[in-house]
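Appendix B. Worked example

We walk through a single record from start to finish. Start with the input: the chain for Sugar transferase involved in LPS biosynthesis (Colanic, teichoic acid), Brevibacterium antiquum, length 377.
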Amino acid sequence: MIGYHLVKRLLDILGALAALVLLAPVIAVVGVLVLLCLGSPMFFTQERVTKGERVFRLWKFRSMLNADPDRGLVSDGQRMTRFGRMLRASSLDELPSLWNVLRGDMSLIGPRPLPICYLPHYSDQQRRRHQTRGGLSGLAQVSGRNSVRWDDRFDLDVEYVDMVSFGLDLRILMRTVRIVLRADGISQDGEATAENFGGTLKSDLLVFEQRTRTETITTWAVSSTAGEEIGCGEMSATSENAVSIRFDASSEAAGNVDIRREFVRLLTNRARATEAVFAVWALPSVSEDRAILVEAGFCELSDPEEQLRLGHKPSTECVLAVCRLWPETSLGIGAAGNSIHSDCRQTEFHHGFRTETELPGLEAGQWQTPRTAETGR
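Next comes the structure step. The output line below is what the pipeline stores for this chain.
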């Protein structure tokens, strides 16, 4: 296997070099079209993770308009254009990544390199995908591209790591050509591209079955893995950058701390997969779930004005617990050049909540998620 990895690297160099030379006219034409249709800059770059969890800068052609809240260009769907969809469907936006292959950051075939902000949310098994170089295409991509959900995609990545061979790479390459020609699996159902990875949705305790989904509200029936009804969950958009989550447990499950803790984990991961920056949980001030929310990274937001900005009316009978879904260190500088900062120091918490915790300022235009850059592919 070690011998094949040396051969694989040689094939990557020769393949990338030949493609860059042969496709130079195509690359030049696409670059000009990007400038004409989408404006400057021509390239999209982003830090991604490859073999050994080494961070490198990925290069692609830009396929979305620049984020501009004043023009209503915030989400992927708002920023995507017909030209951008064509670029992605044809995979022409990937051509600059051949330079990453030539440099040794990537391979022609391997698990797709993903943003560094996903690193804290991998399971130990999922992290094994970084035992080989990230690739332009991989086993997950030829099994549905973005239409495959994250947990299944990572299972396929790990399967590739365990089975990598010349024959497997050749089959993936041939299937990649067919898929690109058919433009299959460019986006997930209901998404402009692909949702964020917010953490595994696998559970040994709970099963979520989606009941309804609209633009603002998603509900699930929640049961145990043995099929017993546990209750129902809901996630709703309460403001442009926050989602509210809640869990109505059945009487049998209400007193089970492990079930409530697992529900908070799973629904927080689902909230992180959206374009929201904050997950909000309104609960009675005497609720025993406050300690569970602390474990999951929630903290109390006491400022009435900021509660209103998150879509909740202040009440003395309720506590508003807020979780920042994407930490500042994961986001860095946003597309518009504004860094995310923490300038809102909170007051003392009670009943197990943290003290002197900082949350980011809630002023309009300062919230950024990984979706404001072209992530997920």
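Two observations about the output. The chain has two domains: 2-182, 206-372. Residues 187-192, 329-369 have pLDDT under 50 and may be disordered.
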